[in-house]
Amino acid sequence: MHRKAWPSRVPEEIDNTPPPAAQPAQVVERLFRQEWGKMVATLTRIFGLEHLELAEDVVQEALIRALRTWPYYGIPDNPSAWIMRVSRNLALDHARRETLFRGKQEEIAASLDRSDDESPIFSDEEIRDDRLRMIFACCDPRISEDAQVALALRTLCGFSTGEIAHAFLTTEAAVAKRLTRAKQQIRDAGVRFEIPSGEELNRRLIGVLRTLYLLFNEGYKASDGEQLVREELCFEAIRLATLLTETPCVRCADTHALLSLMLLNAARLPARTDAEGNILLLDEQDRSLWNQSLIGRGILHLAASSRGDEAGTYHLQAGIAACHCTARDFRSTDWPHILRLYDRLVEIDDSPIAALNRAVALAHVEGPDAAMAAVSPLLESPELRSYHLLHTVLGELELRRGNRDAAASHFRKSMERTRLESERQLLARKLRECGVS
């Protein structure tokens, strides 16, 4: 079967030219991912961070206008430029009529209106710098840590409240409150739109890296929809992390470790699904499809990360990913070493998800009985109450123990909790292995 070609390197930009059969709603949804963060960040620099909601409203209105007009007039040849141009014009209208910009109209107009229809609205360099400033502004330590990441995912990456809630294993209502509180804290504290220096930079970098980590994870395994992989989110996280490693003031061991982790995981993306979009487990994947260029870059950044004083969570996870990527085949995987890395990981990260992943490695080293004993206490974890992969792991362990009825029960619970169609198809396959039609 024909498989999609995978780039040998992370592309600078994702092609936004719509395919011939693309529908306006599909194109707008894709542009929402690609252009939201760029435009919001640039407009925020021009308006001021205290007017963040206004910048979001302007970009959202441009996307709404696309949904209203494109079905009748057709998708423009360059939909990205159309969105940018409409956003610019809406921003100019706001600046000229709103009293809150009194005295700044000429300055704002000059910033927004200095390009004609034949040239880019904003330069790539401006967009790059603005996005870095935005992510550091969102991660100001005067904003609570969870609110920092939620705000960055929403503002910079265009995540919905539902996607953020899934990333945090919480509710949409809780995320909405965090976002409202974070924006109010920005206004009250007078947070500046800049990359800080010194100790202030180090404090913010923790939240920045966590945001990029969650952004990549949402692309690596989407929280809902028909597609397992949303490659544009993975590439965006890698691009931003690469910018950090190329920026002297924020280049550090943790940054290299996170970029290594993302590159090594992205290298395996081409083999994670078949031609129909069905999930392929690690032992089913065609390793010849793994991107060796990305693996090489990942190993280099892992080596660069070792210059730090101690191994953190990103270092250990990257080390685990490197074990998988360098194994000749599934049977050659060094599971004892992976388990040792997980042992160190759970010592510094009390996340129940880390403990669950460790149990999977334990099953390959000591068998399903030992892994079941390690997983069972996690059933009491409030964070994992609605986490479908807990029951997927339990189902797999019971299946390996020969307990088909118990396995089927867990696979059904997992199916009830997942919102991703490709995972439901995988679980249906597992139920058939249990003898359930």
Helix-strand blueprint:
Blueprint: H1 24-47, H2 52-73, H3 79-97, H4 105-112, H5 124-138, H6 145-155, H7 161-168, H8 172-189, H9 198-220, E1 224-225, H10 231-245, H11 253-266, H12 292-305, H13 313-326, H14 335-348, H15 352-366, H16 368-375, H17 388-400, H18 404-417, E2 419-420, H19 421-433
* Oligomeric composition of the shown chains: single chain
Order of strands in the sheet with most strands: 1-2
Strand content: under 5%
Structural class: mainly alpha
The topology string of helices and strands comes to HHHHHHHHHEHHHHHHHHHEH
Give an overview in words.
- This protein has 437 residues and is mostly helical.
- Among the domains are: 21-118; 123-235, no CATH class.
- The chain contains 19 helices and 2 strands.
- The protein has helices at 24-47, 52-73, 79-97, 105-112, 124-138, 145-155, 161-168, 172-189, 198-220, 231-245, 253-266, 292-305, 313-326, 335-348, 352-366, 368-375, 388-400, 404-417, 421-433, and strands at 224-225, 419-420.
- Strands 1-2 form a two-stranded parallel ribbon.
- Helix 6 crosses helix 8 (172-189).
- The chain is globular.
- The two termini are 27 Å apart.
